[in-house]
Amino acid sequence: MSTIDLRGRDLLGIESLTADEIHYILDAVPPFKEISKRDIKKVPTLRGKTIINLFFEPSTRTRTSFEIAGKRLSADVINISVATSSVSKGESLRDTAENLQAMQADVLVVRHSAAGVPHLLARYLPSPVINAGDGAHEHPTQALLDLYTLQEKWGTLTGHTVLIVGDIAASRVARSNMLAMRKLGMQVCVCGPRTMLPIGIEQMGVECTSDFDTAIQGADAVMMLRIQRERHGEVLFPSLQEYSERYCLTSERLRRAKSGVLVMHPGPMNRGVEIAPEVADGLESVILTQVTNGVAVRMALLYLLLGGS
Amino acid sequence: MDILIRGGRVIDPAQGIDRHLDVWIADGKIMALGPDMRIPSQHAPDDPRPAPHLIEAQGCVVAPGFLDMHVHLREPGFEYKETIATGLAAAAAGGFTAVAAMANTKPVNDTPAVTEFMLRRAAAVGGTRLLPIGAVSVGLAGEELAEIGGMHKAGIVGLSDDGMPVMNPRLMRRAMEYGRMLELPVLSHCEDHRLSSGGVMHEGDVSTALGLIGVPAVAENVMVYRDIQLAELTGAHLHIQHVSTAEAVDLVRRAKEQGITVTAEACPHHFTLTHEAVQGYDTNTKVNPPLRTAADVEAIKAGLQDGTLDVIASDHAPHHVSEKDQDYAAAPAGMIGLETSVGLALRLYHEGILSLSQIVAKYTVYPASILGVPHGTLRVGSNADVTILDPDYTYEVEATTLRSRSKNSPFLGWRLRGAAVATLVSGEVIFERL
Questions:
Q1: Are A2 and A24 in contact (CB under 8 A)?
Q2: How far is A271 from chain B (nearest CA, A)?
Q3: pLDDT of residue B54
Q4: Do the chains contact at A199 and B325, CB–CB below 8 Å?
Q5: Residue A181 burial (10 A CB sphere; 0-12, 13-18, 19+)
Q6: Tell me: the pLDDT tens digits for A162-206?
Q7: Segment A30-71, tens digit of pLDDT
Q8: Across the interface, which of B280, B322, B329 has its CB nearest the CB of A114?
Q9: Which residues of A touch B281 (CB under 8 A)?
Q10: CA-CA distance, B229 to B261, in Å (whole number)?
Q11: Would you tell me which of A288, B112, B132, B394 could form a disulfide with B154, CB atoms 3.0–4.6 Å apart?
């Protein structure tokens, strides 16, 4: 008997979800995925609800995905893109959020370049806050859609090994996936140059290596990450060419992996830097499936948090 | 009016006193210490002098006035955070009869004019004494020496670019040489900016999990080592501020063994909290140097115990609520501490780590001797600056009762056992807890 109820809850990170709650969300996805395959991709589930996408950092994929998810459920979706510079107008985060709240938003979807901002807003707002990415901290809906994509392919998640490669230090996608995968009994190995592997990462229960060629041999899925130069403010490797030589997923490297290996990327991709074009477009790639599933997973999540019927 | 403090346990490490004595105060000075004292105006009915004011101190510790040698009072320039008046009121409520105010005001305390202004304001306010610390460098910019001699004449008791560590080792050397000449200690905030820049908390598993940029412990350690070397070279008195790492404790311990004139302080938050307090992103836990690991906390406690760390100082750093009400990285570092320092230090007594006499020494004779000020003792003839502590007084830290203009404390809601119940400066009661 499931007693899980996510209505009214915030989704600030995978960290605060239990394994059962993650399964509960993933199990809710299929009927929502089906909606997107229909001719008329709209159901009245969240009619009369207002979803505000409050994005303090540029985003195409995630913002659009939330917008489409909300609209397919008939919610009113408002997008607000706040350039970080407009914070210098003097209005605090808290005031911005409370003003939106005063307009009776039912859920706030927040992205910010600083870790912890959704947590700050959630302290002031009674309605649910969904973290759509906070700095280098978490991106929980990305992890959920990644897990859903893998579960769809594999049927079960427990026992599989995922290799995450690239700019681990700056990646919220890596953090949320590490947390989620460990909670579900999966093995995770993170790989990158030593300058991009943060101190204490092993405490998250993951393996840690800089040897891509060896690590790829044990992986059931390889998740490539881009270099987030905007977060570092310093150079963590000598040159892009040297980086690519060691950490680009080429078809040659991919041949070292098990057959049936899946290739993932949360986007945006830098073709030729961390992933070769032919691999991004290859048979092993589920990169666009991730995007498709992102809409379904976010629909399921909005439904569960807003208690639609 | 004379004052008689009766029945308390007098602890005055400067005189090696720890026993039940009465304290007689007259004309703002310590007149006498003695058992079951009766002072003349008490028992002579025809004595024209008024009867003394009696302070019953049974169950309490009667100590020399406490000195917090590391506070930020924010005036001039940042009066919305704190003023000399509110800061000194907070100090009195925390049991402090003197505080050393850092130079990072606006304008910076790098000229005699600013020093004089601060002293004038403090004199007008009254109560807790203000001991100004002068900047090492003009504008805390780390480029040229500030008017140290002029400030010395105006009344500074130490030199520090606290908060803006002196990155240029050559300038630090000159500051130490100059400080030695004037018998001013150099108080050093040890942090290599190039290693720490961008960091907002201790670098470790917690910063990694939270996605926050970390400040590695080595950013502190390398500068502690550099400054110890410069102190040995120059013969200056180096005082390491807010030691936060186990390695820094060890470096100070070894330097003392070698006879180098180095002293050091620890802040209550660094022996009370670890970096795990940052989970949840409460910006009141953001402080520089940052909260570190449990091993560092243990090392600081051990350093306090064996005397490596001479002083407990709060690094009282008020920030307005609107500044702290930002994301963790954007919020300024610093927490208030004047009104929680003693309560947190007394936890170490209740835990059996420090004796009351050790704690009193770290607030009195040691900071007074480091700064070369005539405070920190109840010696007969000295100013009657007295702190009366009730080690068992239990209270909750509440924003509404804090005297500081800012409320940025990670200890709000904590129950603390032990507090100052009365504070006297020159024989005047400036704070009393009812």
A1: yes
A2: 26
A3: 93
A4: no
A5: buried
A6: 999 999 999 999 999 999 999 999 999 999 999 999 999 999 999
A7: 999 999 999 999 999 999 999 999 999 989 899 999 999 999
A8: B329
A9: 115-116, 119-120
A10: 11
A11: B112
DSSP chain A: ------TT--B--GGG--HHHHHHHHHTSHHHHHHTTSSS----TTTT-EEEEEESS--SHHHHHHHHHHHHTT-EEEEEE--GGGGGGS--HHHHHHHHHHTT-SEEEEEESSTTHHHHHHHH-SS-EEEEEETTTB-HHHHHHHHHHHHHHHS--TT-EEEEES-TTT-HHHHHHHHHHHHTT-EEEEES-GGGS-TTGGGGT-EEES-HHHHGGG-SEEEE----HHHHSS--SS-HHHHHHHH-B-HHHHTTSPTT-EEE--S---BTTTB-HHHHTSTTB-HHHHHHHHHHHHHHHHHHHHT--
Chain A residues near residue B282 by CB distance under 8 angstroms: none
- Tell me the chain A residues in contact with residue B326 when contact means C-beta distances shorter than 8 Å: 92-93, 120
Q: Is B315 a catalytic residue?
A: yes
**Which tokens belong to B279?**
């989970």
- B32 exposed, middle or buried (CB, 10 Å; 0-12, 13-18, 19+)? middle
| Cα nearest neighbour of A168 on chain B | B208
- Residue A247, token pair as written in the block: 């950490």
Q: Which residue has the tokens 């502190």?
A: B220
B258 Cβ under 8 Å from any chain A Cβ:
no
Q: Which amino acid is at B78?
A: F
Q: Report d(CA A107, CA A175) in Å as an integer.
A: 24
Gap between the Cα atoms of B294 and B304, Å rounded: 15
Report how far residue B284's alpha carbon sits from residue B409's, in angstroms, rounded to the nearest whole number: 6
Is residue B425 within a helix (H) or strand (E), and if so which, with residue range?
strand B415-425
Does position B338 have pLDDT exceeding 80, yes or no? yes
Q: How confident is the model at residue A85 (pLDDT cuts 50, 70, 90)?
A: very low
Q: Which two tokens stand for residue A62?
A: 């995630």
Helix (H, G, I), strand (E, B) or coil at B224: helix
Give how far B414 is from chain A: nearest CA, Å: 20
Which residues of A are less than 8 Å from B325 in CB distance? Answer: 92-94, 120
Nearest to A92 among B211, B213, B325 (CB): B325
3-state secondary structure of B110: coil
Place of tokens 């393996």: A207
Give bridge partners of residue A110 from the DSSP assignment.
A54, A131
Count CB atoms within 10 A of the CB of residue B247: 17
- The nearest alpha carbon in chain A to B329 belongs to A114
Nearest to B208 among A112, A120, A198 (CB): A198
Q: Kindly determine whether residue B211 and residue A136, on different chains, have CB atoms separated by under 8 Å.
A: yes
